[in-house]
Structure prediction request, 420 residues.
Amino acid sequence: MATAIDRVGRLPQREETRRKILASAAQVFSEKGFYRSVVDDIVKASGTSKGAVYFYFDSKEQIFMSLVEEYAATVAQELQIAVQRSRGLVAQVEATVATLVRNFQAHRELAKIVLVDWPAAGADFQGKRIALKAMLVEVLRGYLDRAVQDGKIPAQDTEMAAYVWIGAVGEIVARWLSTGKPNPLEEVLAPLTRLLLSSVGLAASPAAAR
Amino acid sequence: MATAIDRVGRLPQREETRRKILASAAQVFSEKGFYRSVVDDIVKASGTSKGAVYFYFDSKEQIFMSLVEEYAATVAQELQIAVQRSRGLVAQVEATVATLVRNFQAHRELAKIVLVDWPAAGADFQGKRIALKAMLVEVLRGYLDRAVQDGKIPAQDTEMAAYVWIGAVGEIVARWLSTGKPNPLEEVLAPLTRLLLSSVGLAASPAAAR
DNA sequence: GGGGGAAGACTGACCAGTCAGTCTCAAGGG
DNA sequence: CCCTTGAGACTGACTGGTCAGTCTTCCCCC
Prediction:
């Protein structure tokens, strides 16, 4: 909308303030969790004002949701690209794990919000959480099913396997977020990938990848 | 403590009220989560009074903690017994998964509190959470290490494997808690056990157990 | 009649969200 | 050119509701 006034006009300013608010919100939420965070914390951290916050967002809850949605969208996109680029189960799992782990590592605050701090109560929160997970599950399940069809791995409950994988990766990253171990997180890439592959019945042949 | 006055005196009464409060708290917390739950909800649900609640507990937070601690203690105990009773990795994994899954199934409310609603923020909550997980990890890690020593499974990062397993089981139960699938939850027992075993390199030989 | 246990009205801090107003800047008019 | 107007962006003091925790009172058993 109205990109005509961009030159030196309104829009850039608008986006800048909104961005500052979201960035500060990520920081504050990841530090204190949703309920212990106070809108005035975000106001202070962002160097704006309460009015500005409520100019851009309807509610504290909506700030949180926007944060999660925008982050989830980028992760989903990265993941899709990484998986499409890879051929074969091994490469796809490697790509998935690496993408997720690297992304969480690069966006610690957002990772903490999504993996640890996410408020459980409230239908909105809960619904979004389930939806996001389902989306992830679909990606994993897709290539697991293909591997089954190709006879690469035995037939099995691929949906359950996908949930198991998500739980596994989530737990490993959550541990890193709250204890700092292992440092760097990337150490887990190889063993975790091996573990996941072997869980669905793909024995780890030392030089299988690529 | 003070079992001397039990006959027909105070203690039973005392315990009864306290128990009612805790039971109602479990219900309320699992429904709304910690922060959206209001102490008056617990008062109403328990049919007691605010005075009674604050007679037995110092704070809302402490009610929550007591709930989690008492539940965790019983789960830990059951788990310890189940594992000690089993010989060999397969039987131990079976026992662990079955114990956890059955327990969560039998105490849906508490399971939801522990697995889904546990408030992330706040050092107190967080610390206890990490400690409980570490305890669980120790049990799993213990028998994984023994299996490695016995040459049953290849050498590997058993601590990471333990976290992966916990994440996996947690995720499966969490899915059941929020979506109701699968019904009954026990359907996952066999495939989940197989998955976990094979993840650490123990190929599922159809008649391996017992 | 004394004391432990329970009731529930009450208090005060806290905080999400509002609103009346200010500031900035662009456009139109003289 | 300068002045007015108006609209959009932003400010921050304020409000109204909420809720954890307290306090007084009462009851019941000894």
About this structure: The two ends of chain A are 45 Å apart (CA to CA). Residues 10, 13-14, 17, 43, 48-52, 55 of chain A lie near DNA strand D (CB under 10 Å from a C1'). Chain A has a mean pLDDT of 90.
